[in-house]
Every structure is written in structure tokens, then in C-alpha cells.
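ingest -> validate -> predict -> emit
validate: passed (alphabet ok, no gaps, 124 aa)
predict: started
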Amino acid sequence: QVQLVESGGGSVEAGGSLRLSCVVVSLYTYDSACVAWFRQAPDKVRERVAAIKADYSTSYADSVKGRFTISRDNANYTLYLQMNSLKPEDTATYYCAADSRYRGTCATGSIGYWGQGTQVTVSS
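emit:
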């Protein structure tokens, strides 16, 4: 059974940094999967923050470009999100996600696996 286990959330002041990690368990095609981070704030739609494909190409939401960096460690089935210069509007529950298609693109409708979420709170 595939599981995505996030860690690294917490509370920081504006301008601070956090690093999220996600261990992907039992996804044996991990190295050919697109993986991503999504977030959802209260009363808002879940949005994709960043994605990294099997070829290591990355994409970011405009709101986080230049501040967040997504990376992956295929040898350890791990996904990371380095978040710098955090703002109060980054406050949300952050979810690790994996596209269930071979060499997919992490389109929201193609996400087959989700983590349980980790809370990030940024105070002003």
C-alpha cells in the first residue's frame, strides 16, 4: 500500500524558513513519477505549490517563485520543499502528492496518492 508521510511543518514568523519532507512508501515506480506539493488554507481551494517530474524539471505557483524550492531524492524515496521568506499568506496545510501515471505531469486530476498533510503557520 502506497503511503506518503510528511514532516517538517510548524510555526514561524514572517521571513523565516521551513523545510518539508515527504517519504514515499511502497511506490516502486517513484523514480518515474511526478511528485508535488499542494496546500490548502481554510475556506480556500487546494492549490499546487510546486511539482517535480521524473526528469527533474520543476514548476512553481507564481506566489512562491523565488522563495520555495522543490527537490527529490530518488535513492531514498523522498521529496522536499524548502520554503524561505515565508509570508502569512503561506499559512496552510501542505500535502505531498504523487501522480499515478508513468512520467505524469502532476495535474491535479491525475494525483493518485496523497499524504495526510502537515500544518504550516506563518505569523506576522
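The mean pLDDT is 96.
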